Amino acid sequence: MGKRLTILVALAGLLVLLTGAGGAGGAGSTAGASARAVAIRVIVPGQAGAEAGSISSPPYHAAFGSAFAYPSDGSVVSTGSISASVSSDSGAAGTAAATSEVQSLSLFGGEITAGTIKGVAHGSTRGRAARGDFAGATVSSLTVLGVAAAVAPNGRVSVGDWGYLVTLEQGTDTSSGAGGTQGFHGFVTALAVHLTAPHGALPAGSEIQVGYAEANVQSSVAPPPKPIAPGPVAKQPAHAKQKQTPVAPEPTKNSRSSPPLVTQGPTGLAPRLTAGGYVFPVYGPSSFGDSFGAFRGDVAGNWHHGDDIFAALGAPILACADGLVFSVGWNDVGGNRLWLRDSQGNEFYYAHLSAFTPLARNGMHVKAGEMLGFVGNTGDAQGTPPHLHFEVHPAPLLFMGYDGAVNPTGYLEAWKHLQDVRFSNVASWLAKTGIADPAPKPAAILLQVSDISQASGLEPGSLQRAMSAHRRSAEAQVARSLGLLRPRARRP
């Protein structure tokens, strides 16, 4: 009887985990969410193997690396930069997102190669429904034994007589719980190589997984909504009558005493942006997933108005277009934040910066690729990995105020990504720039490293040259102080 009771208790615990705490009672229940990502993993039967960029959520996590090799000489696996990020939110609604990315993959000395391998998984709930997808998962420039290979979901490609690989290997599972609630579990491995015979010092049964992402969500049963008294309706100005100086529609925190109903902004809209050549707003290795529309219970509007781009602390933040900088400063939600308006009238919101550069001034006209600040986690992002919260507000939707944001994922994926500098050792980079504190205080302005702030992301190597010049200047100053260099004699 005791053993049977133990099994029943375990099953009951699993049922609660799957259906969400609270069941279908009148008080409602809380949605659940979790995410997991692994940039690369080598599985060897009977051996330890290796992996890099393995993280899970909650809480939010991000991981970065300059390269990966297995074994140490890279004869089996060698890569360029790797990154991974995961996020999840639970409450009245649940959202989960996982992204992992590997650059410049080479397996078995070049027998299998790929340019970019990216795994992406999303999950979300709305009411009692749950759903998910793998939009954004991709493998570029895949070659197998010197021949270009096609990439398709669960596509299989033979590799000689020793194995096979699967592209965009994925699986989903949906479940139903009490009160008609739904759950979604899904995973994708962008590239999975299976050995059916010994090869390259690996035994049969070994597996190499690249770009793994997993998302899990469980919907909840919502309590009956409380009636809300109607309030005054603010008159929105027509877009055609905008003032010459843009005014930022700021996000604010909700009052805990009277949380508003969950709202949602424009969905499925992607107006064409035509102001010029757009640039990815973070310089160097980064990771992001489509988290637009995810539930955010403590921010006005209740939903995520943009995407979070995870990167190393202090990674440069770039102007994504030629335009006018405005509303530079501090906001309780965004921390150090600014807005940029391009010549077409589209507006872009940058939040959670660790610090600004001198170019980040109200009324400053900047060029695409110029540095505006540095990645951080100020504002309500404290406690999360450093990232840039980035939003796109197209000109035709500015009349909607802050809720006129559209999903930035497609734009970010299309814009030119500049990463000729690897931030594998942030402490070393910060030392070269002369920044003593690796985590600048909120609202800090970097006034002593103008040579760095004036570098342009559009000029390959410009940041490296700026850092090199700054280092030589510092070394010369030290040498003079030690009497190793004599000041130049003045001409008569």
Number of strand segments: 26
Average pLDDT works out at: 76
- End-to-end Cα distance: 106 Å
Query: What coarse outline follows from CA principal-axis ratios?
Result: globular
Provide a descriptive summary of the structure in words.
This protein is mainly β and 492 residues long. The chain is 11% helix and 35% strand. It has helices at 2-19, 409-414, 426-433, 450-453, 462-481, and strands at residues 32-43, 50-57, 61-65, 68-70, 77-79, 82-89, 95-107, 112-126, 129-133, 138-139, 143-144, 147-148, 155-159, 163-176, 182-195, 207-218, 287-288, 307-310, 316-318, 323-331, 335-342, 347-353, 355-356, 365-366, 371-374, 387-393. The strands form four sheets. Strands 3, 4, 5, 6, 7, 8, 9, 10, 11 and 12 form a ten-stranded antiparallel β-sheet that branches. The longest helix is centred in the C-terminal third of the chain and has 20 residues, at 462-481. The relative contact order is 0.12.
